[in-house]
Design brief:
Layout lengths: L14 E6 L5 H12 L4 E8 L5 H11 L6 E4 L2 E4 L1 E6 L1 E2 L2 E2 L6 H21 L3 E5 L5 H14 L5 E6 L2 H6 L15 E4 L17
Parallel strand pairs: 1-2, 1-8, 2-5, 8-9
Antiparallel strand pairs: 3-4, 6-7, 9-10
Length: about 200
């Protein structure tokens, strides 16, 4: 049984999960659960998303907030302290509905870049970036922003979910996966100083 509050993974730093979000909120909790089971002491979760005027984004945020009531999170019969927060993509400080052109892409990249920079410079934390959720362009922009800010202690993660279980969990119908569901976590960035790879097995 993993220790969800103590770990050998740089415990003198705060570990934060930063995830791109679309209409599949379970991606965030699947990833968080897998990281916690690997003894990464995640204590905060940030999601980045377009403006929550889209009902699917609203639903995703509601599903996730329900998982972090009073900054507590349930995993495998245990309760840990974990804070949840969200950031909206912005262009000239105006929330973005979507990324539809070059200008929108610049705004999204700047939003993600400044959030990562804030976390790294002001908080001195270790960032676990999850790029499975949301639009493909948002994931690519997040990876680009991470490459400019990450150190060798930071991570970029992706998850693979088998097709049958992916359909069962669609749009947050199931928010936690058991080991038997065969959801897999894998690293997509070896080192910020070496070559980076982005392998895609499955996207929601």
């Amino acid at each position: 049984m993993p220790d969800y509050t103590h770990s050998t993974h740089h415990t003198h730093h705060t570990h934060i999960l930063l995830a791109t979000l679309g209409g599949q909120p379970q991606i965030v909790t699947f990833t968080l659960d897998l990281l916690l089971r690997e003894s990464f002491p995640i204590s905060e979760v940030f999601v980045i998303h377009p403006k929550a005027s889209d009902p699917r984004i609203q639903h995703s945020l509601a599903c996730l907030r329900a998982q972090f009531i009073d900054n507590c999170y349930q995993i495998d019969g245990h309760t840990i302290s974990c804070r949840f927060d969200s950031r909206t993509l912005r262009l000239n400080n105006i929330p973005q509905e979507d990324i539809v052109d070059d200008v929108g892409a610049v705004g999204a990249h700047e939003t993600i870049y400044h959030l990562i920079r804030e976390l790294k410079q002001q908080r001195q934390c270790i960032v676990h970036l999850s790029v499975t959720g949301g639009r493909r362009i948002m994931a690519l922009l997040a990876i680009s922003a991470a490459q400019l800010n990450f150190k060798h202690t930071d991570y970029i993660w992706h998850i693979y979910t088998p097709e049958v279980f992916r359909q069962q969990a669609n749009e947050g119908a199931i928010m936690h996966a058991s080991p038997e569901d065969d959801v897999r976590l894998f690293l997509t960035k070896e080192s910020c100083y070496g070559p980076r790879s982005y392998k895609q097995k499955h996207r929601y």
